[in-house]
Fold this sequence. Notes:
Blueprint: H1 2-14, H2 18-39, H3 72-77, H4 86-108, H5 115-127, H6 129-138, H7 153-160, H8 167-189, H9 194-223, H10 228-249, H11 260-273, H12 275-284, H13 291-314, H14 331-360
Helix pairs in contact: 4-8, 4-14, 5-6, 5-7, 8-9, 8-14, 9-10, 9-11, 9-14, 10-11, 11-13, 13-14
The protein binds zinc ion.
Main location: membrane
GO cellular component, one term: membrane
InterPro entries: AdipoR/HlyIII-related
Amino acid sequence: MNYCATKSVVKRKGKETDETLSFTNNNNKMSHQHDLDRSGGKRLPLVSFWDLPNYMKDNEYILRYYRANWPLKEAFFSLFRWHNETLNVWTHLLGFILFLGLTLANLMKPHVVDLLQQFTRSLSSGTEKNVSDTIKDFLGAALLFDLKHQVPLKMEVEALEFVIARWPFFVFLGGSMFCLLSSSICHLFSCHSHDLNLFLLRLDYCGIAVMIITSFFPQIYYVFLCQPHWQLLYLAGITAMGLFTIVTLLSPTLSTGKHRAFRAMLFCSMGLFGIVPAVHACIVNWGNPRRNITLAYECAMAFSYLIGTLFYVTRIPERWKPGWFDLAGHSHQIFHVLVVVGALAHYAATLKLLEWRDNFGCDMV
Length: 365
Ligand SMILES: [Zn+2]
């Protein structure tokens, strides 16, 4: 048995370069040292690519600083320790915190008026002025027009129709937060076990699909606000496409490293679907002065996502210098940062659209 093991090691080493060999030998010494540390109750050791269980061998260009089969508690506290997933976790965790802050800021913003508030307001403004004033105080400066004006009830109800729904905006913010948080959780805990790794990878891919689908909601809703048939058609189309992608991604075989390009293609085709309503929206709003600024933000978003996907698929720069970017600067970290940048550009575009609809309703000015 020893002979077989030695033979297989010799055979394997025969294929490796001198540089790799010396690293492996050094690493074996290091692992031994770490084991001693471990028995002394110290921190769990980080291992090299060659010491990983098969299910974790995803990127052969990242050579060191892996966590393998770590208990959940240690995996959680590795949030505050340097390993090759630290920046992957933190880039999306900070992105999540940023979007959570934006969501809370928008929820507290004066213009947030939900249907219940509108209903309360239309009732009260018709009955007594004092109650209207109280609601105005309650909403801060939330109302889109001054309640102190003595407006006949009929006119006010007509004006209320121009209060633009916020839910598609919050659907996008919710989808982005779901994606960023599930990605952070996946990168933090997927070193625990094979089963959890498979589950979290699929959760991560679903998060990306959810983010893409929900990104379409505010744009389609606000641009085609006054053409409900197009609004419905595009929203139904992207939802159906997203659900198909999620169901496909839930298949365990498609979560493996071999299908990296296929997954990227699925996400890209969902993103490219957006070209149809985007071209349509440009034609419909050709004379709108806000077209260029919104379009510029959306192009920035598309550019960020495409470049990010390119890094994700090609695994540049680590493939050029394996082992050099283990801790910082590898493709997945760049991909993560570009996802957050893309989502922020989309957020800015959505704010512009909302501002336009708030001011002009269905008047295409
Ligand atoms: Zn990731």
